[in-house]
């Protein structure tokens, strides 16, 4: 019976270096079996567009800066941090007593055939 020899630490690192070499310039990457594989994608420039995910943040920064300037001129202090939306308001649900159905578990029946 022949036992398989485990890889030495150098061999694992050598393989990893080869898979992640910086010589292959890429625009995208993919993880496969815990190794980073570099991918090259080809896209025409006409199909690329700038990301808009940051627009709301930049707009909020501009508005907050204006509020800070106004408050500084008036000598007031401001709280500009965003606050999470609180819990919803309470409401009472009314129903007629005959419309209310109480559910109960089905009793256990021993069936020994």
Largest sheet: 2 strands, antiparallel
What is the helix tally? 2
Q: What is the N-to-C order of secondary-structure elements (H for helix, E for strand)? A: HEEH
Distance between the termini: 54 Å
Strand content: 5-15%
The chain-level structural class is alpha+beta
Helix content: 25-40%
Shape: flat
Rg (CA only):
32 Å
Read across the widest sheet, the strand sequence of neighbours is 1-2
Provide the low-confidence segments as ranges. Answer: 17-27
The tally of strands reads: 2
Mean pLDDT rating: 78
What does this protein look like?
The protein has 113 residues and is α+β, with helices and mostly antiparallel strands. 27% of the residues lie in helices and 9% in strands. The protein has helices spanning 9-19, 55-74; strands at residues 28-32, 35-39. A hairpin with a 2-residue loop joins strand 1 and strand 2 (35-39). Residues 17-27 have low confidence and may be disordered.
Summary keywords:
single chain; 113 residues; alpha+beta; two-stranded antiparallel sheet; 2 helices; 9% strand; Ribosomal_eL21
